[in-house]
From TrEMBL:
Natural source organism: Lasiosphaeria hispida
Keyword set includes Oxidoreductase: yes
Source taxon at top rank: Eukaryota
A UniProt-annotated Pfam family: Bac_luciferase
Record-level Gene Ontology MF annotations: alkanesulfonate monooxygenase activity
PANTHER family xrefs: ALKANESULFONATE MONOOXYGENASE, ALKANESULFONATE MONOOXYGENASE-RELATED
InterPro entries in UniProt: DMSO2_SphG (IPR024014), Luciferase-like_dom (IPR011251), Luciferase-like_sf (IPR036661), SsuD_RutA_monooxygenase (IPR050172)
UniProt-recorded name of the protein: Luciferase-like domain-containing protein
GO biological process: alkanesulfonate catabolic process
Domain Luciferase-like span(s) in chain numbering: 38-339
Amino acid sequence: MADAAQLNSDPDRLLFAYWVPNVSGGLVISKIPQKTSWDLKSNLRYAQTAERVGFEYALTQIRFTASYGAANQHESVSFSQALLQGTEKLKLIAAILPGPWNPAVAAKQLASIDHYSEGRIAVNIVSGWFKGEFTAIGEWWLDHAERYRRSNEFMRCLRGIWTAGDDEGFTFAGDFYRFRNYRLSPKPVQKPHPPIFQGGNSDDARTNGAEVADWYFMNGNDLEGFRTQILDVKARAAKVGREQHVKFAVNGFVIVRETEEEAMRVLQEIQGKADAEAVEAFKAAVQTAGASTNNKQGMWATSTFNDLVQYNDGFKTKLIGTKEQVAERIVLLKSLGVNLVLTAFLHYEDDIEQFGKEVLPLVRELESKGRGKDVEYEIEQTGRVYQKH
C-alpha cells in the first residue's frame, strides 16, 4: 500500500475526513454493539491510524448536554487540541456553537492552537438545532433565521479578527457582536486564517455558506439533492464574488464488506436495532427546527426514521457496499463538485484502517485515470444508486 504522502500527492485530489467520536454512543443511534469508544486514549489511536492511512481531516463534535443516546460528551476545542498533540499531519476541525462561545474567545483559542499545532486547526460553526441544549445552560433560544444570522456575524468576526492589520485592529458593529480596534496577537499561523466550515440545508445556511464560510457541509442526500444544493450555493456565492472560494463537503456513513449483500445486512442490523425512543426524540427536535425555516426545508425536514438512525443522514450517501462500489460512488460525488468526504463508521477500531487501505487507494487510482471530472459520465456509471425510489 502506498503511504499517505504518496496517496495524497495530487493537488486536485478529493480530501477525506472522519467524525471524531468524542461523544458516547458512536455515530449511530442504535443498540448494535460497536467497537468505538469516546475516550481520549482510543481517539488518539483512531487519529494516528487515520493519519497513517491517508485521512487529512477529523471533525470533533460539540454537545453540551446528554441527548439521543449520547450520555457523555468531551468538549470539542480541547479535544481537538489533545488529538493535535498526538499527531503530526492530521488537521482537526473543531465544532463551535455561537451563543456559548464569543468570537473573541474562539478567535484567541484557535489562533493559539494553530501555533501549537503548526497550522493544523480549523473550525466548524454550528448554528444549533437542539433547544434544550441552549436553555439548559442559560442561553437564549433564537428562531432559525436569527441563529443563522448570528452565525453569519460570528464567522465575519472570526475572519476579521484573524486578518485585521495590527495598526487599525478589528472594528465591527453588528446586532450580536461589537468590536472596536481589537488587536489579536499572535495571529494564526495559517494564512489568511484557519479554514471556516459551516453547514445546513436551509436558505439561511446556504447563504452563510456562500457569503462567509470557506467550506459548506452537506448532509447525506440523493443525486438531485446534491446537485441542487451545490448549484444553489455556487449561484449565491457568485452574487457576492465568491464563486471560486467556497468548497463543498458531504457526510457519509461507510460500511465496506466483501459483498454488497453483506454490507446491506450490516445496515439493516444497525437500523433494526435502533434505539427507537432516542431516534423519535431526535426526529421531533430536528424536524421541528427544520420546519421553522421559511421554506420548511431545513436539515432533516424530509428524513425518515431509518435515515435519522445516523445523525446527519449519512446512510443516504450510499457509501455502503464493496470497496469498488464505494470508490466509484465517491468519484461521482467529486464530479458533482464535492471537495471533501466526511466519513463515519460503526467500528472505529477497525473501519478507519480498512477504509484507508482498501477504499482510498482505489479512489486515487480512479482519479489518476481522470475519473471524477465528467459528471454525466459518472452519473451514467453509478448514479442510479442515488435516484429517488
